[in-house]
Specification:
The structure is a single chain. The chain is an alpha/beta fold. It is built from 16 helices and 22 strands. The strands form four sheets. The chain has a nine-stranded mixed β-sheet with strand order 9-10-8-11-12-13-14-15-16, sandwiched between helices. The protein has a six-stranded mixed β-sheet with strand order 17-18-22-19-20-21, sandwiched between helices. Helix 9 packs antiparallel against helix 10. The mean pLDDT is 94. The structure holds adenosine-5'-diphosphate (ADP) and magnesium ion (MG). Residues 104, 106-110, 135, 183-184, 284, 287-288, 319-320, 337, 339-340, 344-345, 348-349 line the site of adenosine-5'-diphosphate (ADP).
């Protein structure tokens, strides 16, 4: 399906087309280029995309967006980053889709994926749903995701992230959401913020881009609720809260753990009551699901289909995916949370581990990064949920995690190692049949490699 013609790209960017071409996709990573793609040659500090033009066309690119003339079919602009943003604006302007922006300290990608699955079911057969891929949520990922949105999209779901004040204020002018969700406010990236209230303010910037008549979706149970509501007030026609409290507009009135580890929820959405099962375990998924229902309702999607989608969600790699590995004459359960970690998500997933029926629970916990001055206390503070989860043994990875080892001293079989490679060696001696092992840390710690090793059976 055609996404952008060279003429449309030239019109959107004010550039000059050389050659007549039609593209079906957009990418700025030459390794990701597929047949029919528009390759955007970005000029960064480290690399210059123009060096990869030959490679991109060898991989099947149909055209390129460049700031230097090229022998390949292209549209020439002064600045490719600015041009990508203009392409994003044009994509947004030409669609009649209902647009949803998702931000928050944790739960963005999970909520975005669940919302996409829910809306994809509503949109099926009529038109289509579109979403950002992976965690493409920053100053390049958001415009890229928008530029990839087909004109005939019915629902568009965009993850929006930030680690500094002002970033969302800009991104939201590109996304122009009809519905803006804040999943949670929690200490993540705290080194760039004075305190959590400052994080709430920066997340609240998402509401500034709401379309007229737009809906703000706010976590009721957050201590920053009133701050978020105040931030939404000038821009939102309607503010919808979600949570467990009975005053929340979208609320869970009953939750029950299912045999397979998910949660059976009875929820109220406005005046309607509905029951559904969430395949993914944990209270945090109950919370994310309520945000999903609030958004589906706000864009006129089908709540019953949303419930079905929530029942079928698979665990995302690095964010709760599960698999078993052979150990000795038995098996161990691996919970892969290697993608990221902060105090809030650590607690959420330790609570999931707590409910796991395993002979023994163990953890591989990598350090949580970007926590600034509070780092030691945040790490030490995890001892309580680790022990409450019934964890008997564990490997703590990275220098910043050392305060956690100290706090766990004498309370089980815990060791500290320098890096992911050492953790791998240590885990292979620790792992026993019947274990459930939770693997979680900041992405930079590299625990994904350890998980990959376990998956391929070499541990
Ligand atoms: N609502 C929530 N509250 C607390 N922790 C959560 C929540 N949603 C997800 N998590 C935890 O955070 C991790 C990262 O989730 P993800 O959806 O990738 O967040 P983000 O995209 O905001 O970084 C998950 O693996 C889970 O451990
Ligand atoms: Mg994400």
């Amino acid at each position: 399906m055609s996404l952008w013609t060279s003429a449309a790209i030239a019109a959107a960017t004010g550039g000059t087309a050389s050659g007549d071409f039609t593209t079906t996709g957009v990418t700025f990573d030459s390794r990701e280029v597929g047949p029919g793609d528009l390759f955007v040659a970005m000029t960064g500090a480290a690399t210059d995309g123009h060096r990869f033009l030959d490679q991109a066309f060898a991989r099947g690119a149909a055209g390129a967006l460049v700031s230097q003339p090229s022998v390949h079919p292209h549209v020439l602009v002064p600045d490719t980053m600015a041009a990508l943003e203009n392409l994003a604006r044009a994509a947004r302007a030409r669609t009649a889709a209902k647009i949803i922006g998702v931000t928050g300290s944790v739960g963005k990608t999970g909520t975005k994926e669940a919302l996409y699955a829910a809306l994809e079911r509503s949109a099926r057969a009529r038109a289509r749903a579109h979403r950002s891929v992976k965690s493409y949520n920053n100053h390049t990922g958001v415009p890229l995701s928008l530029a990839r949105m087909p004109a005939e999209t019915r629902f568009g779901v965009f993850e929006m992230g930030m680690n500094h004040a002002g970033e969302l204020a800009h991104l939201t002018t590109l996304v122009r959401p009809h519905v803006a969700i804040i999943t949670t406010i929690a200490p993540a990236h705290t080194e760039f913020f004075r305190d959590e209230a400052a994080i709430a303010d920066a997340k609240g910037e998402i509401f500034r881009g709401l379309e007229p008549g737009g809906v703000a979706i706010v976590p009721y149970d957050s201590p920053h609720r009133d701050r978020l509501i105040a931030a939404a007030m000038p821009y939102a026609a309607r503010i919808v809260t979600f949570g467990l409290d009975k005053a929340a507009d979208v609320r869970a009135i009953e939750t029950m753990r299912t045999e397979s580890g998910g949660t059976f929820v009875t929820a109220v959405v406005g005046t309607r009551e509905l029951s559904f099962t969430i395949s993914q375990p944990g209270q945090h998924w109950v919370s994310n699901s309520l945000a999903v229902l609030a958004a589906v309702d706000a864009v006129g999607g089908d709540l019953a289909l949303a419930g079905l989608a929530l029942a079928e969600l698979g665990g995302l790699a690095g964010r709760g995916a599960r698999f078993t590995v052979a150990v000795g004459d038995g098996q161990a359960l691996v919970i892969d949370e290697s993608y990221n970690a902060n105090p809030s998500s650590m607690r959420a997933t330790l609570a999931v581990l707590a409910a796991e029926p395993a002979a023994r629970k163990i953890v591989v916990l990598g350090e949580m990064r970007e926590l600034g001055a509070g780092s030691d206390a945040y790490h030490a503070g995890l001892a309580e949920p680790v022990l409450a989860a019934g964890v008997e043994a564990g490997i703590l990875v990275g220098e910043r995690a050392r305060p956690l080892l100290n706090a766990l001293e004498g309370k089980g079989d815990f060791v500290h190692v320098a890096d992911a490679a050492a953790a791998r060696a240590s885990l292979s001696t620790m792992l026993a049949p019947g274990d459930a092992v939770l693997i979680k840390g900041s992405n930079g710690v590299g625990l994904a490699a350890l998980v990959a090793g376990l998956r391929s059976g070499e541990h």
